[in-house]
Amino acid sequence: MRVIQNLYARTAVLLVLLRLSVAQYEHLGYPPGYPYPEQEEYTAPQLDPDTPRIQLRLAGQKRKHNEGRVEVFYNNQWGTVCDDDFNIHAAQVVCRELGYVEAVSWLPSSKYGKGEGPIWFDNVHCTGKEKTLAQCQSNGIGISDCKHSEDVGVVCSDKRIPGFKFLNTLPNHVENLDIHVEDVQIRAILSSYRKRIPVMEGYVEVKDGGKWKQICNKDWTQFNSRVICGMFGFPGERKYNPRVYKMFARRRKPTYWDYSVNCTGNEAHLSSCKLGQAVLEKSNGTCPRGLPVVVSCVPGKDFAPTLMTGFRKAFRQEQPLVRLRGGAIVGEGRVEVLKNGEWGTICDDKWNLLSATVVCRELGFGTAKEALSGGRLGQGMGPVHMNEVECSGFEKSITECSFNKEALGCSHEEDAAVRCNVPKMGFQERLRLSGGRNPYEGRVEVLVERNGSLVWGTVCSEGWRTMEAMVVCRQLGLGFASNAFQETWYWSGEVSADAVVMSGVRCSGTEMSLSHCLHHGAHLSCPKGGGRYAAGVSCSETAPDLVLNPQVVEQTTYMEDRPMFMLQCAYEENCLSSTSSEVPANTYRRLLRFSSQIHNNGQSDFRPKADKHSWVWHDCHRHYHSMEVFTIYDLFSLNGTKVAEGHKASFCLEDSECDEGIEKRYECANFGDQGITVGCWDTYRHDIDCQWVDITDLKPGDYIFQIIINPNYEVPESDYTNNFTKCRCRYDGHRVWMYSCHNGGSLSSETEQTFPGLHSNQVTHR
């Protein structure tokens, strides 16, 4: 018995030593199937000899890699498919033939643009079980009475068929290599890069048949590396030291993929590159005179390690010519360009992935995932600077691309937007929502290090507001915040995570992670404790965006002397200056009056935070206030000193007017619902109470006038930078003028500096 026990003990020791010895060679590569389980090898469908051999691809503008116009390669020519009788079963056959698990939808009438060449299939009838589109019933290949205005498109699911492999059935190697980004990885090899986030250098590996394989670097070009880096969120590539990788390749025999890749360098994704010749392997399993492909990528400044000062210098941020606005997460938004000192938008005519990728790289991101049109990420204000933009993909800036300076017929309903590839930073793994009814809500729980181990805990809700909730939703990729909760007793959460591990959180709203916000660190302070008072959020994919029309303010400004006895209600609501309490009722107050026209340019309706039952009734004016402070009016001296102020409660948020084709939804009459619909605006006329600034005590001179909407961030919006309007104001004691009115962020930084002493909405009221 003792001999057997000794044998077990020695065996255990040997196993431990074996694991330690294997661990030291971990950097040389993983054994087959590790860390991914072996998957069943994909087997290509066997086709009858009389079945036409075709190849499919997805093409067109304004698309993601898994959607587009269906194009067929047959008889050495690419053509299209007519939408007559096309249905979801036919889309299913197309998507599976392209390697996707299933079809999501199909789109008729050339939604992805008109194709070229012959229309190979018309009146297609599929059961959904066919192995190729050529097996479906149709008029016959090449027989059609359709036009290219009837070209059909499909949208496939993101998920790939496990082990799917493109087989080269055509002799000319022109078909697309359609590999989803999840099937490609950059695996860090050097120990100096293995723990670094994001992964910037290593082997390029393709998942094929459930196994990760390296690519032979024979015929590999810098253009291929450029595309790979762009896919993973990096704007460029750089040289690396090949010697050390040669040593690793000698120690660990690589498993090579069967094909090579041929990219031109301007592709947004590897799926747009062409498949090169099959690599002929030697008997010893290495590619001819080659090694595994290695890429080394250059990160943008927002993702560069702090010590890499060279990258910070490479992507200077002095006065950018391009910016993104209205996006929920980093790397997405409406594209705006600076021209003649004023920010404007781009019309979506001819907008495609090439142009969108130029924008993304210019801003320090990778290639574009999507080129969005139709104001999908909200509408801008001001001029439309560019139209019909066409780029080669190698420009350093979108301003170097050719474009039509005339934007006739373009409106902000056609504003172009982008979604860029950004590096994987691992932020989502350090935060979670717990206890909610759906994935978009719950108690906020963070992963922190305590006593050498990682533990989950809650966030103190004291001071928890919209800005902090915005960062949480962005970090989790859930869009915008819709609510910030300071009590979460109705969300039980994980019992093991009840303890408070973060307190004193203060965010500007632009951080990528909650840990980037100001907080107490290890010295926690949370008088109420966690539990029911832990912070919580609810998120939404869309948000409103209120923008004031500066021209209306400029055009409606005037001065009125009004007797005090007619201002009793305004006095009760604190709409007059403090000196008004010291004067008799027969005196006058001098009021600077103007109108406010507030547009909702976002993607969802603007609704008051408070429920209708909690609105405050003001007996003097005989109406409810749904927001006690909806706008703030301030008058500053030229050195930034506040000399007069006013405010306006939202006693009535309603749709005064709407864009053509949009119906009004909110009306205040009869205690109705309040809000501003997307595409509508609410006008506070100059002749209503409190729509003014009391300038009775103001001396003649030059001033700066400022209006701020939603100043306390009670209601989440997609963009707070445009919530304020500034004007120059001249008062001579008898008359008043307002001029140079503009919204926040609409002018260049140099022009903004001519308005001294003033800051943005976020800086002023944090």
TrEMBL record:
Top EC class of this enzyme: oxidoreductase
Any one GO biological process: collagen fibril organization
Disulfide partners: 82-146, 95-156, 126-136, 263-273, 391-401, 507-517
GO molecular function: copper ion binding; protein-lysine 6-oxidase activity
Cofactor: Cu cation
Free-text description of this protein's post-translational modifications in UniProt: The lysine tyrosylquinone cross-link (LTQ) is generated by condensation of the epsilon-amino group of a lysine with a topaquinone produced by oxidation of tyrosine.
InterPro entries (UniProt xref): LOX-like_protein, Lysyl_oxidase, Lysyl_oxidase_CS, SRCR, SRCR-like_dom_sf
Enzyme Commission identifier(s): 1.4.3.13
Signal peptide: 1-23
Disordered as annotated region, ranges: 746-766
Annotated localization: Chromosome; Endoplasmic reticulum; Nucleus; Secreted, Extracellular space, Extracellular matrix, Basement membrane
Superkingdom, natural source: Eukaryota
Residue span, SRCR domain: 56-157, 186-298, 322-421, 431-540
A cellular-component GO term for this protein: membrane
Catalytic activity: L-lysyl-[protein] + O2 + H2O = (S)-2-amino-6-oxohexanoyl-[protein] + H2O2 + NH4(+)
Keywords of the record: Basement membrane, Calcium, Chromatin regulator, Chromosome, Copper, Disulfide bond, Endoplasmic reticulum, Extracellular matrix, Glycoprotein, LTQ, Metal-binding, Nucleus, Oxidoreductase, Repeat, Repressor, Secreted, Signal, TPQ, Transcription, Transcription regulation
Function: Mediates the post-translational oxidative deamination of lysine residues on target proteins leading to the formation of deaminated lysine (allysine).
UniProt family annotation: Belongs to the lysyl oxidase family.
Annotated protein name in UniProt: Lysyl oxidase homolog
Protein source organism: Oreochromis aureus
Upper classification of the organism: Eukaryota, Metazoa, Chordata, Craniata, Vertebrata
